[in-house]
Amino acid sequence: MEARRDIFQAIADPTRRAIIVLIALQAMTPNAIAEHFDTSRQAVSRHLQILTECELVNQNQQGREIYYQLEVNKMKEIDNWIDQFRKIWETRFNQLDEVLLTIKNKKK
Amino acid sequence: MSSSLLFDFTVNKENNTVNIKREFYADLELVWEAWTNPEILDQWWAPKPYQSKTKYMDFKVGGRRFYAMVSPEGVEMGWHIQDYTSINPKTNFKFLSVFADKDENPDLPGSNWDLNFSELNGTATVYISIYNESRERMEKMIEMGFKEGFTLGLQQLDELLLTLKK
Q1: What is the domain partition of chain B in residue ranges?
Q2: Could you say which of A105, B50, B78, B83 has the lowest number of CB atoms within 10 Å?
Q3: Is A25 within 8 Å of B157 when comparing Cβ atoms?
C-alpha cells in the first residue's frame, strides 16, 4: 500500500527537517546534502525522494547536476510557519528592550 | 518586564500587509535613535546568536542601509538593502526592503515598510506596517521570515547534525 504523502510527513523526520533547513538557504545537489550527514547517500536519496513526493522540494537540472530546492509555496501551507516570522520580531524586540535599558542606565 | 509591554502582530492576507505594534519603556528620542543609528541597530536587529552587520547606512531620503546577518562562526549571509523613501524625524520613516547578494545586487521584489513612532507618559510605541503590492510579494516576505526563522534554529541544526553523525 502506498503511504500517504503530505507536508507533515515530510517534516516528521529529524533528518528531513535538517535537509529542509539546508536547502532553505540555497539549492543543493544530493552529494552536497549528503556531505552534511554520516548516513549513507542512499538514505539521503530516500529522504529526498519522500520530500519530492510530498512536493516540498523540486528538482532543478543545471548541466549534469540536479539541484534540490525548497518548494516555498508548499511550505506556506503550514500557517504555523508565520509564527517563525513573529518569533523573530519577538526576539528582536526583547533584545531592543535590553539595549534601551543599557543606554538608559549609562545616562544616569 | 517585556511581558507587560504591548505587542501586536498580525498578518493580513487580504491586503498583503503585516502589521506590528510594540511599546518600549523608553522615551521617543531614545527609541528613534535605536532604530536609526546603525551602531545601536546592529546590537538588536539580528536574532541571537546571529549578529547584524551594517556595511553602510546613509539615513536620509534617497539614502540606503546595506547590511548582513553574521553567523556565530563569523560567516556573512542574508544581505539586505533598505532604501529610505521618507523621513520625518521622531515621527515616521519609510523604506523599501529588498533581499540582496553580498555584492549588493537586489533580488526583487521587495516590500514597503512604514514605521511610526509616538510616545505617551514615557512609553514609546512603534507601529510598523509592511506592505506588499501583490500576493507574490507578500509571500516572498513570509519566505524571508521563514528563512530567518530557520536561521534562529540553525544552532539547533548544528547540534542535530552532531547527533546524527554519532
Answers
A1: 2-165
A2: A105
A3: no
Least confident of A64-68, B69-73, B81-85: B69-73
Averaged pLDDT score across all residues of chain A? 82
Which of B1, B44, B77 lies nearest to residue A99, judging by beta carbons?
A: B44
| Domain boundaries, position A58 | 1-77
CATH number of the structural domain spanning residue A28 = 1.10.10.10
Phi-psi region of B109 (alpha: psi -120 to 50; beta: other; left: phi over 0): beta
**B118's grid cell:** 509616538
The arithmetic mean of pLDDT across residues A63-75, rounded, is 86
Query: Would the CB atoms of A73 and B161 count as touching at under 8 Å?
Result: no
A38 and A64 fall within a common domain: yes
**Rounded to whole angstroms, how far apart are CA atoms A18 and B24?**
36
Is the CB of A96 less than 8 angstroms away from the CB of B24? yes
Checking if the pLDDT of A49 tops 50, the result is yes
pTM of the model: 0.63
Q: Please determine, for the modelled complex, whether the ipTM score is greater than 0.90.
A: no
User: Are residues A73 and A104 located together in one domain of the fold?
Assistant: no
Class of domain B2-165: alpha beta
From the list A15, A72, A86, the residue facing B9 with the nearest CB is A86
| Helix residue spans in chain B (DSSP H) | 28-36, 38-44, 135-152, 154-165
